[in-house]
Design brief:
By secondary structure, this protein is mainly beta. The protein contains two helices and ten strands. The strands form two sheets. Strands 1, 2, 3, 4, 5, 6, 7 and 10 form an eight-stranded mixed beta sheet that branches. Strands 8-9 form a two-stranded antiparallel ribbon. It is globular and about 35 Å long.
């Protein structure tokens, strides 16, 4: 029997990567991940990612490309990651998460990622696009100098 697939999104917007802090289960709570969830029967990885990001974060996203590789999770599950562009909505921690944070270039090591997400996060940070997307401008905060800053979004299990 093959492993069950869990999809995750390296969601990009305005040159930043979205990180989500787990609220459950207890052994994962407080650590950070790329948001996503389990592939359902009959879904492609891209379809599952769009559905999971809508359910968990309340956003519409467009999957772009799969990051090469897959990473073992708990027994019987593997993680596959796609890059994705935020299309619409402002991410909110609706399920499985209690906080979201946008990370800019060089900020990928500032949070405690789940171990299985680390290789994909490293690749996602290398692929971090410059500039902005067509998403709502309210997804970015500005500092008093007018430059974009990292934003924590207040707030529930993928794995």
């Amino acid at each position: 029997m093959s492993d069950r697939v869990v999809v995750a999104g390296a969601v990009y917007d305005q040159g930043r990567l979205l990180a989500a802090r787990r609220s459950a289960p207890p052994e994962l709570a407080g650590r950070w991940e790329l948001p996503g969830g389990k592939l359902e029967p009959g879904e492609s990885g891209e379809q599952a990612l769009v559905r999971e990001l809508r359910e968990e974060l309340g956003v519409e996203a467009e999957p772009l490309e799969r990051i090469p590789g897959e990473w073992p999770l708990k027994p019987g599950y593997v993680l596959r990651v796609w890059t994705a562009r935020l299309v619409s909505g402002v991410p909110a921690p609706l399920q499985d998460h209690d906080e979201l944070r946008w990370l800019g270039p060089g900020e990928g090591d500032e949070i405690d990622w789940l171990d299985q997400d680390r290789p994909a996060v490293a690749e996602a940070m290398r692929r971090l696009p410059a500039g902005s997307s067509s998403a709502e401008s309210t997804t970015a905060e500005s500092t008093p100098t007018g430059t974009a800053s990292t934003r924590s979004l207040p707030g529930g299990a993928r794995r």
